[in-house]
Design goal:
Layout (H helix, E strand, L loop, with lengths): L3 H6 L5 E3 L2 H6 L9 H7 L6 E4 L3 H13 L4 E4 L16 E4 L6 E5 L2 E5 L4 H9 L3 E3 L11 H7 L6 H4 L10 E5 L7 E5 L15 E11 L3 E8 L2 H13 L5 E7 L18 E8 L6 H7 L3 E7 L16 H9 L3 E3 L2 E2 L7 H10 L3 E2 L1 E7 L2 E6 L2 E3 L3 H13 L3 E2 L17 H10 L17
Parallel strand pairs: 2-4, 3-4
Antiparallel strand pairs: 1-2, 5-6, 6-10, 7-10, 8-9, 8-10, 11-13, 11-14, 12-13, 12-18, 15-20, 16-19, 16-21, 17-20, 18-19
Bound molecules: flavin-adenine dinucleotide.
The site of flavin-adenine dinucleotide (FAD) has 38 residues, from strand 3, helix 6, strand 10 and helix 10.
Keywords: FAD, Flavoprotein
Pfam family, one: FAD_binding_4
Organism: Chroococcidiopsis cubana SAG 39.79
Length: about 450
Amino acid sequence: MIDWDALTAELQGIEVISDPNQVAKLSQDYHTFSPILQAQLDGKKGDLVVRPTTEAEVMQAATTCVKYRVPVTIRGAGTGNYGQCVPLHGGVVLDMSRMQAIHWIKSGVARVEAGVKLAALDKKARETGWEMRMAPSTYRTATIGGFIAGGSGGIGSINYGQLRDRGNINAIRVVTMEDEPRAIELRGDDIHKVNHAWGINGIITELEIPLGAAYPWTEVIVTFESFMAAAHFGQALGDADGMIKKLISIFAWSIPSYFGARQYIPDGTHAALLMVAEPSLELLPGLVQEYGGCITYQRSQQDAGKKFNLAEFTWNHTTLHARSANPNITYLQSLFPADKNLQIVDHMYRYFGDEVMMHLEFIRVGGRTVPAALQLVQYTTEERLNEIIRYHEEHGVFIANPHTYIIEDGGRKVIDPEQMKFKQMVDPYGLLNPGKIKALMRS
Ligand code: FAD
């Protein structure tokens, strides 16, 4: 039995939240996009929320939780989709969102605390001619620590690939959960011991993150009569190395009917939502014409009068908008094989029809433009969802299953032995986010 009063007394000086409603709220994330996770994680919550503001306070919290052998679930902004920050065994929710210092930005690199919001970092970086290389569509709320520990890529991945790609993270500093916690700085390839580890391998306090050159971006909507014409256009724009872009999202009708931008997308048409650098805009109409498209909307990203941010209809925001109209909709996360002819995309589009609505996000993988996808699925049963997943896998489509809270069953498939070795060193009592790794299942 944990003596919560004694534990709280040892956290003196740090903000602690014990109000059950607030604790329950701060134990949630966006796993609710999955009907399967919704059922599995219903009612799971922590006992206490601890909100450090400095690394010294993180150390104090870690020392205390180790002493009382209390599970610790780390939280950024709680926008993850796999229940990554839902505590399975109660304990402390360590909310990192108050650690918001941007230490420095220079020569295309930023050093920041883990709780910095992605939009805040981007804004600051742009003042110096740099910007975030990639960001999830939750950039306004998500933290950099949560993105590194729980995300994968997003707006900008068409240029820089994903977080897991070498060179997208320079350094990660973590606090351990040993009897006497330490702060360890990982650099170079060692960062993979913590990258996308869902908070099981140390508490990230600081990061060094490389930036990209900032461009004036223009948001563009292009519509097409045929979905495959839109998809081929997306591939061609991705392959046009001299044209600078940050986002190529392709949507089969009726997905655009869920968007606040639908006045620019006539009923029954398929849409490409783009962010293109101003110097490359002149070339866009020619390429659009080649694929039979029509530009229906064009705004500068900084235009104060615009009514929406186009990026906030893309990536997993697409699912958010669709679900607010129809809560029976869920989604897949896929990577199609590299193929300029997009044959498997074409096959899946025709084969599933409206049951699996096609949503492509072109990204860079190993130097090539490849369609990732967050297809919308009309959910019926778990069995049917698994059948759909299996059919994709049998046809060479990689599925990062978003309907599981087990790290190996999602995008990872196996845990890197180096990550496991690091875990044993930094978290010898298995207190960090217990229950999320198959290899270390608690009974
Ligand atoms: P949280 O959800 O709070 O945490 C995520 C994971 O990181 C958890 O396992 C948590 O324990 C761990 N963690 C958090 N902070 C730390 C820390 N300091 N130290 C160690 N571990 C930590 N993801 C994408 O990659 N791309 C997208 O485009 C994208 N779009 C999305 C759209 C919507 C509408 C939603 C709901 C989600 C989307 N996501 C996307 C998922 C999620 O928003 C991002 O991954 C986001 O970056 C997570 O940040 P967060 O601060 O909310 O992290």
